[in-house]
Design a protein that fits this description.
Elements: H1 3-16, H2 23-33, H3 35-38, E1 41-51, E2 56-65, E3 68-77, E4 83-92
Antiparallel strand pairs: 1-2, 2-3, 3-4
Helix pairs in contact: 1-2
Length: 96
């Protein structure tokens, strides 16, 4: 799996995403371009919701694919409901 190429494509997508768009949709779209390497999308796990202050909330989402998991750290503006990706990491699954 060419993780470097996937990370670069994700970075470009996140930089070019408008603030009105849900970043999860853009990330899924990018990962579909790498379906032969990442496998099919199997689901998303939302966890670790934490209130940062009165205006912002942090959340971790794990987008699961057959061959890898993409972990996203997101911050949500509670007033506007806009989501921003603060960080992401890509973990490949070991073949059995």
């Amino acid at each position: 799996m060419n993780t470097r190429q996937i990370k670069l494509a994700l970075t470009v997508e996140l930089l070019n995403t408008s603030s009105q768009t849900d970043p999860l949709d853009g990330v899924k779209k990018v990962m579909q371009q790498f379906q032969s390497e990442a496998g099919k999308f199997t689901g998303v796990l939302l966890s670790s919701k934490e209130l940062l202050n009165n205006a912002f909330e942090s959340q971790i989402a794990a987008l699961q694919f057959e061959k890898c998991t993409l972990n996203l750290e997101m911050v949500t503006n509670l007033k506007s409901r806009q989501k921003y990706v603060q960080n992401f990491s890509l973990e490949t699954h070991q073949a059995a």
